[in-house]
Amino acid sequence: MANIKVLNMSGSEVGSIELNDNIFAVEVNEHVMHQAVVQYLANQRQGTKGTKTRSEVRGGGRKPWRQKGTGRARQGSIRAPQWTGGGVVFAPKSRDYSFKLNKKVKRLALKSALTTKVNENKFVVLDALNLEQIKTKEMQNVLNNIKVSKALVVLEDGNKNAVLSARNIPDIKTASVNTINVYDILKYDSFVVTKQAVEKIQEVYA
To answer: Global pTM?
Structure first.
């Protein structure tokens, strides 16, 4: 098992923690990580855009003029695509872009992403992140002390002060153990996690 040093809010080393090799030292599978990211982005799409085809636009039931003898091009409807106010060719329709991945695939992708952060020395463990009050400046000081800027901060449930203190800091996102995903882990440079949250991750994903 890999040993990772544990820091306090001042950035000083106060101990170490052993990481479970079944979660933080797996063989990195880039293909399943790519699948997980594509699924995450697809599931974020609303798919609510929609326009009307010529069959759905109001009007245009009567032939505008007779087929022959007028000197003009033949027309069948004033709602054909070439007319102003006509329908759209191959109009986009509301649809659901989401798709599912197997549970084992999603779990392997998450473990691969966590392993990547450990291998890159971008995995930072804090002894605790307890702020006495909701204050952005205090949270920024902690991040400066541990020398991270663009980071995903994973907290234990109920740490409201830390969540609210971090929400106005650019390039910082907070998450709980149950809401972490491959996209966010890979998007942010550093993965900052409390010791309590690490224990929960190992309990949930072991």
So the answer is: 0.81
